[in-house]
């Protein structure tokens, strides 16, 4: 480096000042690029991109911490302090081979995702069909909680609250159509190893396929069974 500076001083006696400053900048460049935070930043970005790959399309990672202020880190090994797929604002821990201190880096993870919305106004109690569904796209941080991302999750389900056009379809606000109705007669099928019994009872609550429903028997005994595709209650012993 000293030899380069001496040569530049000698050269400056015969050349313009601008050219000399340019040479000084070139001589300093290798040292300026060798910053200690490069390894942490690169490892953290790669780690988050890999962890967030399942979120959706156009996954992006932006580091919001100034990693240049962190101590030198050899062989950085990023990890998530909390379980789950990183999205939105996240904190990443980084372990290093040269000491036991954990470095922490803040970042923002973005991804474009799509989810189902109502294509028109839908009344409470209506059964969903394909023409009632539409798609919306947004960043994963703005995706409504429990939003559905496949038509099969919605078609045939019953809406539990009124929806306006463009409102997200959420799994916790849909239900299976009732196959068993409270106060009506229902068939119970009890099965076990080597036997099967069918009896009639009165349903004590509504239920769709897969729901658990209670039924009162003629002798007053209450049994619980799971609604099958034919609207019967399967009771297990």
UniProtKB/TrEMBL annotation:
Signal peptide as annotated in the record: 1-34
InterPro entries xrefs: Flagellar_FlgA, FlgA_N, SAF, SAF_FlgA
Main location: periplasm
Pfam families per UniProt: ChapFlgA, ChapFlgA_N
GO biological process per UniProt: bacterial-type flagellum assembly
Domain SAF: residue ranges: 113-175
One annotated Gene Ontology cellular component of this protein: periplasmic space
Keywords, comma-separated and alphabetical: Bacterial flagellum biogenesis, Cell projection, Cilium, Flagellum, Periplasm, Signal
Physiological role: Involved in the assembly process of the P-ring formation. It may associate with FlgF on the rod constituting a structure essential for the P-ring assembly or may act as a modulator protein for the P-ring assembly.
Record protein name field: Flagella basal body P-ring formation protein FlgA
Gene: flgA
């Amino acid at each position: 480096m000293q030899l380069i500076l001496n040569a530049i001083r000698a050269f400056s006696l015969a050349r313009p000042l601008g050219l000399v400053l340019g040479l000084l900048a070139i001589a300093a460049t290798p040292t300026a690029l060798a910053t200690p935070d490069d390894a942490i930043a690169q490892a953290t970005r790669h780690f988050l991109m890999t962890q967030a790959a399942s979120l959706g399309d156009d996954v992006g990672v932006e580091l919001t911490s100034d990693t240049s202020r962190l101590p030198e880190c050899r062989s950085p090994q990023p990890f998530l302090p909390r379980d789950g797929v990183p999205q939105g604002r996240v904190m990443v821990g980084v372990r290093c081979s040269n000491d036991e201190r954990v470095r922490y880096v803040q970042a923002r993870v973005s991804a474009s995702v799509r989810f189902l919305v109502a294509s028109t106004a839908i009344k409470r109690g209506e059964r969903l069909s394909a023409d009632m569904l539409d798609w919306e796209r947004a960043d994963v941080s703005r995706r409504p909680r429990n939003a559905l991302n496949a038509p099969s999750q919605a078609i045939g389900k019953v809406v539990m609250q009124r929806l306006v056009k463009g409102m997200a379809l959420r799994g916790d606000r849909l239900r299976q159509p009732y196959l068993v109705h409270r106060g009506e007669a229902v068939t119970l099928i009890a099965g076990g190893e080597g036997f099967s019994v069918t009896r009639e009872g009165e349903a004590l609550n509504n239920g769709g396929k897969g729901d658990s429903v209670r039924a009162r028997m003629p002798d007053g005994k209450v049994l619980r069974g799971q609604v099958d595709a034919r609207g019967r209650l399967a009771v297990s012993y």
